[in-house]
Amino acid sequence: MSVPSTTPRPAVEPSIWPRLEPLLPQVTKPIQYVGGELGAVVKGWDAAAVRWALMYPDAYEVGLPNQGVQILYEVLNELPDVLAERTYAVWPDLEKLMRAHGVPQFTVDAHRSVRDFDVFGVSFSTELGYTNLLTAIDLAGIPLLAADRTDADPVIVAGGHAAFNPEPIADFVDAAVLGDGEEAVLEITAIVREWKAEGSPGGRDELLLRLARTESVYVPRFYDVDYLPDGRIQRVVPNRADVPFRVHKRTTMDLDAWPYPKKPLVPLAETVHERYAVEIFRGCTRGCRFCQAGMITRPVRERSITTVGQMVQQGLEFSGFHEVGLLSLSSADHSEIGDMCSGLAEQYAGTNVSLSLPSTRVDAFNIDLAQELSRNGRRTGLTFAPEGGSERIRKVINKMVSKEDLIRTVVTAYTNGWRQVKLYFMCGLPTETDADVLEIADMAHEVIRAGRAATGSKDIRCTVSIGGFVPKPHTPFQWAAMERPEVIDHRLRLLKQAINADRSLGRAIGFRYHDGEPSLIEGLLSRGDRRVGAVIRRVWENGGRFDGWSEHFSYQRWVDAAAEVLPAFGVDLDWYTTRQRDELEVLPWDHLDSGLDKDWLWQDWQDALSEYEQDDCRWTPCFDCGVCPSMDTEIQIGPTGRKLLPLTPVNGAGLRIPAPTPQ
What we know:
six-stranded mixed sheet, four-stranded parallel sheet, globular
């Protein structure tokens, strides 16, 4: 392990704006680099004891609405001696100009160089952002490899769902945080503050050691990986005595104590979501076997109906947004979702504020919910996710929804005024056959027939959207083999033909899909180990940028890079993707504890192969997944018995804040 030098930090440039501004007329959408949004915070540099640069590694239009980054930005900036600013991935046109003119990666708040900050926090919701991370590190003037960094460089911390297996980027990040960030960033900040106040003893290595000792910050440099002759991992062990063998996830238990964002960022440029978003609960126990988010965010923690109401009122008043998104992994499962939606609909009756839910469970949507979501006449899009086309494959993935459930739910939507619904499915699921996929066409046809019959109108549509299945760490499918891209593409061609076989129905059905190639690469990155870092670097050196965007993604670039670097390790692309793992194999993330018992995950994988469905443990006895006992907690659900009121009703003239209640 190399020891970084104690190079002092160079003088801080107050702002790189004078050098950046002349470049902006030469690029597309220059407004995304300007900053100054409503909700943005600029604090004095010299007054801050700890300084964070926060990044969502994608373009501004995707990164700005990201809920996780917005929450951490606000939590950190509420501390009087802490400063947090935001940075996003720059498009290739600006990257080229920045390199030509020596302009570093910058924050959009005060346009400071990212290298000048103490901590560079990067939130990954998808692994396809890894190449953008390397671009940002390099543009910032920070050494790509963590081992080459000095005290002059910020500590780079990865977070987000993809950080539950940070091994593919272990060479490039200094640390990773598993789980919820609200309390984690405060703990990291306190450690950095104390270390700096003491005069930075022991340099960068000592700071990282202090972080590792928390047992909830993973520092890859303190762990060695040994491999077996066939390429599998033999073991992952600490290389020093004072770091833990396993690193545990952080879980924020009381969401009511963290009512963020209070002051949401309002974008200057168009973004993918322009709404005030409230996370109404965190975690999910539905047990969909493909769903990493549902597994790693356990246990369920509900935000109370009164806190949701207060957040919506304050957030809308501050931002001026006209849409409220009630977010979670399965929002209609909140124990008080009916009262919540009716209360908000009453609150904003007669205004232009609309409510929306993200992808809604087929068996949780009902006529009352439909009426509340459409009460003011505005109907935002409805998305339902059966995930699998056939009853059999839905048993495999534990998506307990019947075709009759779906038809009944969609007819409810059509008869309540919606004319367009979206149905989301996956292709390439374990044990899937052509016949399973072709049943998607039958289901879509029946949806249109039933909708026409119920409404007496042909003016209805549904869109079938298909995503490629990617096995994820910490799920029962973490052992599964992926399907090859050519098989996925073959099934999608058959499905398109089947949808259009009946032209009168087919013309009412939209068909959107992702081909199998990006999914295979995402699979390489999601279940990769440290050796995959060399592939990421080669792809980036060969021009890889914005791999989550189809127009920028190059499958051949990834295939070529894998073929160039992986044989030296005795493995290849198929070894990471289309190979099924066995029970005893050491997985790259086994030393990172999501709270889930590995034996339970394996048994659920066997249950999937035997097409056995598992109930939701919120309403049935515990299934021993391991989360609650390992965290000394239990599922937190309502109902609280409270209503949204006594918030003051809002009229068309605007929002009114109720007078404080006398104490």
